[in-house]
Amino acid sequence: MPFSIYLYCGDIMETRVLDKTYDLVEEIKQTKDYNRLLELDKILKTDPTLIVLIESFNRIKEKYDDVSKYGKYHPDLKPVQLELAKQKEEVYTNPIIKEYKQLEKDLQNRLDQISKEIANCVSSKIKHPNEIGLINKH
Description:
There is one protein chain. By secondary structure, the protein is mainly α. The protein has a domain of 30 residues. The chain is 78% helix and 0% strand. It contains five helices and no strands. The N terminus is likely disordered.
């Protein structure tokens, strides 16, 4: 097969693969979980109470990062650690944030599974992320 014909066939195959990929993306975007994730994202970005909660958590996290550079010798380490723990609990027990994080995790797991299945269909030697996001060695 001449090289130019091979390239043309490769482009057709690549186009078909991309078309199927876009179809899969659209299918995922039509799911109830994906749409709920978008709703929750909008709430997280517009609800004044949640905005204050998240900003407060981010501020104390930054402060903790700064203080922890000096380790146990920084005089504010213990109070900042306690405040961070308190803020973290408040953030991650909020029902909206909790649901958002769970849906985000579920979607990521689904995408990782799809990636794994595609990789294994092509070859068992193709590396793909495992359950914790690390690339498997063969």
